[in-house]
Automatic annotation (TrEMBL):
Protein name: Uncharacterized protein
The organism of origin for this protein: Agrilutibacter niabensis
C-alpha cells in the first residue's frame, strides 16, 4: 500500500514540475542569472549543472541554482544537502518546492512532502485546483490524512479551495467526509467546509448527521428556532439560509421576502408577491432529515391571490416519485385573513432524507399566471407516535 501511495505522489510531483515550467515565466533582463535560470527551467539549456555553477559564481546565494545542482547530483546525501540549501535560500521558488516534494515522496516521507506542498500551494494559486483534486483522490489512505490535518489546522490560504474540491463528484465522499470530521475536532470548520461536510454526508445518505453538523454551525442565538426537525417555521431568522434552513430562490414573475406586516405569529411571515406572469416554480423549500414515524404538518396561510389552482405544501422522500404528503392550502377568500391548514404523513424506514417545498398545482400555462400575495407563517412539524392519520382541518382564525 505504501508503494502505491509513493508512486501516485511521485506522479503528482512530476505533473507539478511540468505545469509550473509552463506558468512560471518570471524571466528577467536579456542577460544574467534570471535569463539563465529561465533557459534551464524551460529545458532550452544544455549542461544545466555547469550553468548553475556559473550562476553561483556571480550570485552565491541563488537558491534556484542549488536546486539545479541537487537535481543533477547522483549522490543522495549531496543532493539532499543542495536541496536543503535551495529551500532555505529560495523558499518561494515554485520549482524548488516541487523538487523538494518529489524528493520527500521518493523516500516515502509523506509528512515532509506535504509540508513542501503546503508551501507551494501558498505561492502558486494557479495550480491549486488540479493539484488538490489529485491530492483528494488519496484521502482514503490514513497516512495522507494524518499528515494533511496539521497543515490544515494552520489555516493556509488554500484551505477554502480544498473545501470546494472535496464537494466535487469526482472525489470519493467517505474519505473526504472523514477528513472534515477529524479537522472539525481540531479546529472550527470554516463556512465552506461546513457546507462541504453537509454535502458529503447527504451524498452518503447520512442525512441526520448532516443536519446535526449544519445545526451545530449556527450561532447559539438562532438554534432555538429549530423544532422537531423543522427550522424557523415562523420565518423569524431571515439571515439564515441554505443548509437545512429555508432555501428561497429568485423566480421570474415572483418576489419572495420576509415581511413584518401583520404576521400570524411572532414578528415576521413569508410573503410571495405574484405580478401576473406565469410562474414555473415557487422556489421555497427546506431539506429535512426526519426519523421514520408518523408526523403532522401544520401551517398558517393568508391567500390573496388570483390562483385558479391550489397551493400545496409537500413532503417528499429523496428520489421518491410521489410525495408522502401534499397538503392543500386554503384558497383565496373575498376577505383575506389568516387560515390554518394541517395534514399527517408517514416517513418510512428507507427514507433518510426529505424535502419540504411549496408548490402551485397548476396544469397549464394559463393556470400558472398568478397575481396577488400569498403569506405563510407558523409552520409546525410534530411527531405523533403511533397515531393513525386524521382528516385535515382548515379552521379560520
Amino acid at each position: 500500500m505504501r508503494i502505491v501511495i509513493v508512486a501516485v505522489l511521485l506522479g503528482i510531483g512530476a505533473w507539478m514540475a511540468i505545469a509550473l515550467s509552463h506558468v512560471d515565466a518570471d524571466i528577467g533582463a536579456p542577460a544574467g542569472p534570471d535569463r539563465l535560470m529561465g533557459a534551464i527551467d524551460s529545458g532550452a539549456a544544455a549542461g544545466k549543472a555547469a550553468i548553475a555553477r556559473d550562476i553561483l559564481r556571480e550570485h552565491p546565494i541563488d537558491g534556484r541554482a542549488f536546486r539545479v545542482l541537487a537535481q543533477a547530483e547522483t549522490d543522495a546525501a549531496r543532493a539532499d544537502s543542495f536541496l536543503a540549501i535551495a529551500v532555505r535560500r529560495a523558499p518561494r521558488d515554485r520549482l524548488t518546492r516541487t523538487a523538494a516534494i518529489d524528493r520527500a515522496f521518493a523516500r516515502g516521507d509523506v509528512e515532509n512532502g506535504l509540508l513542501h506542498l503546503d508551501a507551494l500551494l501558498r505561492v502558486a494559486p494557479g495550480v491549486r485546483e488540479e493539484m488538490l483534486q489529485r491530492l483528494a483522490g488519496l484521502l482514503e489512505h490514513e497516512e495522507i490524512q494524518a499528515a494533511l490535518l496539521p497543515r490544515l489546522e494552520m489555516a493556509p490560504n488554500w484551505r477554502p479551495a480544498l473545501a470546494t474540491v472535496l464537494k466535487s463528484p469526482q472525489v470519493p465522499a467517505a474519505p473526504a467526509a472523514t477528513l472534515l470530521e477529524h479537522l472539525g475536532k481540531r479546529t472550527p470548520l470554516q463556512p465552506g467546509e461546513v457546507h462541504a461536510y453537509v454535502t458529503l454526508l447527504n451524498r452518503l445518505g447520512r442525512n441526520a448527521e448532516a443536519r446535526r453538523a449544519w445545526w451545530q454551525s449556527l450561532p447559539l442565538s438562532v438554534r432555538s428556532s429549530d423544532a422537531n426537525g423543522l427550522f424557523d417555521g415562523g420565518f423569524e431568522q431571515p439571515d439564515v439560509a441554505g443548509g437545512f434552513g429555508w432555501r428561497i430562490g429568485t423566480q421570474p414573475g415572483l418576489t419572495t421576502a420576509y415581511d413584518d406586516i401583520d404576521p400570524l405569529e411572532g414578528a415576521r411571515s413569508l410573503v410571495l408577491d405574484f405580478d401576473g406572469r406565469a410562474v414555473a416554480d415557487l422556489g421555497v423549500e427546506q431539506p429535512l432529515a426526519l426519523r421514520p414515524g408518523h408526523y403532522r404538518l401544520a401551517a398558517g396561510v393568508e391567500n390573496n391571490t388570483s390562483a385558479a389552482r391550489p397551493f400545496l405544501l409537500e413532503v417528499a422522500c429523496q428520489g421518491a416519485p410521489v410525495p408522502q404528503l401534499s397538503l392543500e392550502l386554503p384558497s383565496a377568500t373575498r376577505t383575506p385573513d389568516w387560515q390554518r391548514s394541517q395534514g399527517e404523513f408517514d416517513v418510512p424506514a428507507a427514507c433518510s432524507g426529505q424535502l419540504l417545498r411549496l408548490r402551485l398545482a397548476a396544469r397549464s400555462l394559463q393556470e400558472r399566471m398568478v397575481s396577488g400575495t400569498l403569506r405563510l407563517d407558523a409552520i409546525r412539524l410534530n411527531p405523533l407516535g403511533n397515531q393513525g392519520p386524521q382528516p385535515a382541518a382548515q379552521p379560520l382564525r
